[in-house]
Amino acid sequence: MLALRFWAGFWLHKTCFVTIHAMQSFNTDSDDAATPLATGRKVIVGAINDLRPGECVRIGLPGGEELAVYNVDGEFYATENFCPHKGAPLSEGALCGHIVECGWHGWQFDVRTGECLTVRDKIRSYEVRVEDGVVSVIL
Predict the structure, then answer these.
(1) Whole-prediction pTM value?
(2) Does some domain include residue 12?
(3) Which of 40, 90, 123, 135 is most buried when burial is the number of CB atoms within 10 A of its CB?
């Protein structure tokens, strides 16, 4: 019976992506300079129980900016939501551990730092605070 439980748990365990792409880096600088977000501003995401481990949520901000907030085994992280390659929403990508993979072309980012693991690029990451069971992002 123990062996049966082991194999059932083995096959039901979430597997992570293994993507290796040779990617060309594109100029991701926009001709339309976005208005920088006010720094030091606190954005409430929600209660810690609203975002389960392994999930990500999109948070819309004024001016069309968006954040992606991730729960990685009870630790919360936040990045800008759009992949610099073609603008895909990272909140709709695959999250595996501390890595989110863009659903459009497979670019991978470390949600702790914003570092791209696929090409030399980076997305903005933000400080996340949990106070009294409420998750917030400091812009």
Answers:
(1) 0.76
(2) no
(3) 90
